[in-house]
Structure formats: C-alpha cells, structure tokens
Write a structure and sequence with these properties.
The complex is a heterotrimer of chains A (about 170), B (about 190) and C (about 325). By secondary structure, chain A is an all-alpha fold. Chain A is built from ten helices and no strands. Classes of the chains: A mainly alpha (about 170), B mainly alpha (about 190), C mainly alpha (about 325). At the A-B interface, helix 2, helix 3, helix 6, helix 7 and helix 8 of A face helix 1, helix 2, helix 3, helix 4 and strand 1 of B.
Chain lengths: ~170, ~190, ~325
C-alpha cells in the first residue's frame, strides 16, 4: 500500500536519530540500548518470587536471589517500558494502532503465530548465549566498535541470507 | 565525564525510561514494527533494516569517538562488551534462525506488540519461552560453553591494528557501499505489497 | 527477661523503622474505593444536570461497577483485618474524629445506594451487554425478572425511581466523602510523615475520579461522551500533576522528617517507580495520547484509559508502601 509506505520515516534519518539516541545512552548512563535483557530480568523476578528456594540453589538465578532489589528494578526493564510508550506514540501519529496478525497472503494467521512463537524461542536462547540481542549486543556493540557486536550482527545476517530460500514461501 | 549518571541509581533508571521512549519511537517510525518489512532485507524487496542499522551504528560510533576525543567519554568507563568467540557465533546462529522464522528481534517485537500486532505478541511469548528454557537448562547445557573462547574486551581496531578513527572511517565507507548496492538490488526485485 | 525502657514510643520492635503491616490488600481497597466514588459521583452529577441521555454511559451503564468494586474492596479489607469476626464493631460506634469510623459509615450508606442505582437502569444495561457479553446479559435479565416477579419489589423500585433525585444528592456528597476518605485514612497516621499531609485527601479524590472517568471513557459507545470524558480526564491529570507538585513542595519545605519522606521519591528507593509508573506512564503518557486524540489522530481510547487506571492503582501501592517506609527518625 503506497499510502502507508510514505508514513514511515526516511531510513537514513531514522538511522541518524537512532544513532544519536544510542550515543546519548552511552554518554548519560554508560551503556547502550537493548531489549532481551529485560525479558531475562522479568523471568528472574518471577522465579525469585515464586520459587525462592530453587532460585538460591540455581547457578543462573543465584545472583538475583540474594540481591537487595527486585530484578525488575533494572535498566533494561525501564527502557522497555519507555519503548512501549514511544512505539505507541509513533504508531498513533502514523495511524498504525490496530489489532491484527500480519502475515504473507500465502500463509494463514495460525501458521504465522506458530512461526512467531518458534522464532521467539530461538531468539530467546540465542540472545542469552550471545549476551544480548540485535540491539543490545549488535547495535550497541557496533556503536563502541566492539568485535562482539560486529560478529553477532555478521552471524545473524549471514544465517538469515544463507537460509532465506528455505523460508521464502512464508514471507514473500 | 561519562557516564553522567551513577549506574544502577534511581536516576539512571529514570533515564533508561526516557531513552527507551526515543528508542521505541524511532524503531516504530522506521517501520520495524512490521515483520514483513524487516525480513524484506533477506528477499531484497525492502532494505530499511540495513539502512537504519548501519546509519545508526556509524552515527553512534562516530559520535562516541568524537566525545572520546574531546575527553567527555572514555571507552574504559562505558560498557564495551567482552568478546566470547564461539558462544557469540552459536548465539548468532540461533538468533539468525529466530529472525528468519519469527520476523522480529526482541526490541522490534516489543514495538510491534505495543501497536497491536498479535504475531509480535506471540514472538514475545516465544522469547520468554526460549529464555526460560535457557535458564532451566543453564547448568547442564550452557554454563561452561558460555565462557569459553574469551578474547577479552576487544575492539575492531585492535584486530586490524588500525587507529579507531580509521576503523570507523572504513566502516562508514563500507556502509555507504552497502547502501548503494542494496539500492541497486532493490531496483531489480519485484515489489512486495505488505 | 530483658527490661526495656520506652521513652519516645518509637523504639518498637516490628514497628520502627519499617512496618510491613499493610500489603496489597489496603492499596487495592483504596483503589477500588476511589474508583467506586468516582463512578457514583459522575452518575449522580450528570443525572442531576439532566444529562441522562447525553451521557448514557456515565449515568446508566458504568455505575454497575461501583457496588462490585465496593464489595471487592471490603473483601480485601476484611482479608487484611487481624480479627475478622469483629469488623462489625466499627458499626457500634461513631467517632467523628476518626477517619476509619467516617469511612466505615460512609461505605455503609454508599453501598446500598450504589446497588440501587444500576437497578434503576436494568433495561439500558441489558441493551448495552446484548452484543457485548451474553453472560452478564443473562444475569441482568434474571435480576429484572426477579424484581418484576414480586409486587413489593416493584413497589420499592418504583419508590426509588420517584426519589432518584434525593438519592443522587446523597450520592454526590457521600462519594466526595468516600474519595477524600481514601486519602485521609492515610494522612491520619501522624507517625508517617509521607502520609501526614493535607494534600493527600484531594489527591486521592482526584485520582479516584480520574480512574472512574477513564473507565467511563473506555466503556462509552458514543463519540460525544468519549470526547467529553477524554477532556475531563485531561483536566483531572493536570490537577493531579499540580497536587503532586504541591505535595513535594510541601514535604520538601517541612520538617526534616517530611523532607526525608519527599526524598524517598526524589532519589530514594521509590523514585523510579513513582516517576515512571505513576507520573510517566499513568499521567503524562495518557495525557499525550488523549491530546493527540483531540487533535484528530486515531488513538484507540482503551490505551490511555488502561494506563490511567493502571497508574491510579500503582499510585496507591507506591503511596502505601513508601508511607510505611517513611518515619520520624530520632537518633
């Protein structure tokens, strides 16, 4: 739909603004933006709250169990709350606020939902192993010229391009 | 001297919220709340992700370098991730697959879910599932592997033995070439409606 | 036994420095009480102004939530009481100087009145829920049949209908008392400097009315009413921000104890929860969305409404929790 495409921001302008936000984040708070860490914090908060004994004995949750604050009181959690607000404001400005399942006309909504869940599971595991997701490890890592950032972005895009053919019918 | 705010303090979290608003706004405005626009980069019909991503990285890295040069920022006091070679590669493979299958990454899925995309909400649910699986199998599967091949805090300039500024310049030139190439590719590919 | 000498009344084990006597029940009760007060207030107010048909949601539909909220709130309150079986003793005494007594009695009167009100509009409620929720529709239908089955219930309802104006007047006064009471209840605790401020009453009243306005706006099916309540909500948000500013100014210029109380929100452990959860997401963000809506952008009304209601709830939780943290400190 050509009329909706015009409502997206120019990608280069968006890139510059995004870069400035990441830069501001580094200068003001010493770290870049991210997302997957917030999910981890929320899970940690849930486990510490509902299974405290298990949390203390676990190698993963041990550090959260003994902490003074709830794991929810974390940088990325509050950043994600902001992300939700910012996205809704932008969506309202462009008239994109409505409930729908977006998918290629060749697949059903149900297929798309199942794909999204599987994709999310993969991304969830990968983001823990890669110490952050596309924005946390990738973009913020690239911003400080970290090898880790370039590496993770290279691998993500590399896997994407080399296996794109296998999933073509789900997207195009 | 950066960081201006004590990390972990209450005001630090307040800033996280404010920065998050900007982050979410730009991601949504750029069109990252639409999975079919995002995966367009793998099929050649939409390269928004590459354009936004590389422009942002060039802008941020140049800006930080500039502030470093002026003495406002020190790479030692901001978070430069440690490079763990193989965990990062394997993690990247998982993420690449997740990206291709699910059509989002965590940040963009939150944006898309916020404006009402139900597939994004399913992706968010999947992330929770994935991380939960990871945490539960942490000791058996990942704990040892996670810290292998530690290369330390490594910047791209260290690998190539070039000054940081030159490295950023090379990256910028590389980005511009990429932009030209993808624009050429897009011209030859049939438009996909989404 | 070790002998201890109390001189200040402050050095009490499990009371100072932090009591955690009040958990989620009390803030949930205060939230529901404020919401019910607001709903009752709007219904009576627009009824008395003769706007029954212009504001159908506010007058006829939304008030059915009020008795449910009150009952739920009272259940939470009961859960919190140590001696549950003695709660009725609140009603064996009237103490004009005790906000608890005021609140108990106000609730005792508001409760039946808030039940009667929606009963007068069963037909409209049925129409509203016909294609929205069939279960609620059936319940209302059953209620209506029950009332029409007996002559004496019909007579009583007829009498209420005739005297609806009197009920509305009583409601308006009682709802303001109820709304203020949810705040005064806290500010009567002299030992808690954060609560011990006169602004808490009006602030809780405004916040309660604002959550009610958001609820009505969310339920409204008519554009005129939606816009009307959107505007009302914007005003209420402005008033709340004004009162919050004044609360902090008041606390910051007070004794060192109240300055400490203010500091809980200005760098202390409640800073980010309060400024992000209450002010950011609960007031400013919905205000931005509602302003955009009034400027002609398409914003589903449920989004600002949801965040206002959530913000109102977080506000109660933060105030109750932080209040128990704040103390007069003698050392």
């Amino acid at each position: 739909m050509s009329d909706t495409q015009n409502k997206y921001m120019n990608p280069y302008l968006a890139g510059v603004l995004l870069g400035l936000i990441i830069m501001a984040s580094f200068i003001i708070t010493g770290q870049g933006t991210g997302a997957s860490g917030a999910f981890k914090d929320i899970i940690a908060a849930g486990v510490v709250k509902f299974a405290p004994a298990f949390a203390e004995s676990s190698a993963f949750f041990g550090k959260y169990a003994g902490a003074e604050h709830s794991p929810l009181k974390a940088w990325l959690v509050f950043e994600i709350i902001g992300v939700i607000a910012g996205a809704i404001i932008s969506g309202a400005l462009a008239g994109r606020l409505n409930l729908k399942v977006e998918h290629s006309p060749k697949i059903t909504s149900k297929t798309r939902i199942v794909m999204a869940i599987i994709g999310g599971i993969f991304f969830g595991i990968g983001s823990q192993l890669g110490r952050g997701c596309t924005s946390g490890a990738g973009l913020s890592g690239m911003a400080v010229m970290s090898v880790s950032g370039f590496l993770v972005v290279g691998v993500i895009f590399g896997v994407g391009y080399s296996l794109a053919w296998a999933f073509k019918k789900y997207w195009v | 001297m950066s960081p201006l705010i004590t990390p972990g303090s209450e005001f630090d979290l307040l800033w996280a919220f404010i920065i998050g608003i900007g982050f979410g706004f730009i991601l949504e405005a750029a069109g990252f709340s639409t999975s079919r626009k995002i995966v367009g980069l793998f099929y050649g019909y939409d390269f928004t992700v590459i354009k936004v991503f590389f422009t942002a990285a060039v802008t941020a890295s140049t800006g930080i370098l500039l502030f470093n040069h002026l003495g406002y920022v020190d790479y030692g006091s901001i978070y430069v991730p440690t490079t763990f070679l193989w965990p990062t590669v394997v993690g990247g493979i998982f993420m690449g697959l997740g990206f291709l299958i699910g059509g989002f990454c965590p940040g963009t899925s939150v944006c898309a879910a916020a404006i009402g995309k139900l597939d994004a909400l399913a992706f968010v649910g999947g992330i929770f599932g994935g991380i939960f699986f990871y945490t539960m199998s942490f000791e058996t599967l990942w704990m040892e592997f996670r810290t292998t091949s530690n290369l330390g805090v490594l910047q791209l300039s260290d690998v190539f033995g070039l000054p940081l500024g030159v490295m950023i310049l090379i990256f910028s030139v590389f980005s511009i070439i990429t932009f030209v190439v993808v624009s050429k590719i897009k011209q030859n590919i049939k438009n996909v409606e989404y | 036994m070790k002998e201890r000498l109390f001189t200040s009344g402050r050095d009490m084990l499990n009371i100072d420095p932090v009591v955690n006597a009040w958990h989620w029940e009390i803030p949930a009760y205060l939230f529901l009480g404020g919401l019910a007060a607001g709903l009752v207030f709007f219904a009576s107010f627009y009824y008395l102004r003769g706007k029954e048909d212009q504001m159908p949601t506010a007058v006829k539909i939304a008030p059915f939530i009020a008795p449910i909220a009150i009952v739920l709130g009272l259940i939470f309150l009961l859960l919190d009481l140590k001696h549950k079986l003695y709660f009725w003793q609140l009603y064996t005494t009237i103490r004009l100087d005790s906000p608890m007594s005021w609140g108990a009695w106000t609730l005792g009167v508001v409760m039946p009145l808030s039940v009667i009100w929606p009963l007068l509009y069963l037909d409209d409620l049925k129409k509203y829920f016909w294609n929205r929720n069939i279960v609620i529709y059936e319940i209302i239908d059953w209620l209506e049949k029950l009332i029409n089955d007996f002559d004496f219930t019909k007579t009583i309802m007829g009498w209420f209908k005739e005297n609806q104006k009197a009920i509305a007047w009583a409601n308006i006064i009682l709802s303001v008392i109820l709304g203020v009471y949810t705040g005064i209840l806290l500010s009567a605790f002299n030992a808690r400097p954060l609560w011990n401020t006169a602004i808490l009453g009006p602030l809780f009243l405004t916040s309660g009315i604002s959550t009610a306005a958001a609820t009505i706006m969310w339920m409204a099916y008519d554009h005129y009413e939606k816009v009307r309540f959107s505007r009302i909500d914007l005003w209420l948000i402005a008033v709340e921000l004004f009162l919050i500013t004044h609360m902090f100014m008041g606390l910051s210029s007070g004794t060192s104890a109240s300055m400490d109380a203010a500091a809980l929100f200005l760098g202390g452990p409640y800073t980010v929860v309060f400024w992000v959860g209450v002010v950011g997401m609960g007031l400013l963000f919905p205000a931005v969305l509602e302003s955009m809506e009034l400027l002609g952008y398409k914003v589903p009304i449920a989004i600002p409404a949801f965040f206002i209601i959530l913000g109102g709830a977080i506000f109660r939780f933060v105030m109750v929790d932080a209040g128990q943290f704040s103390k007069y400190f003698f050392q």
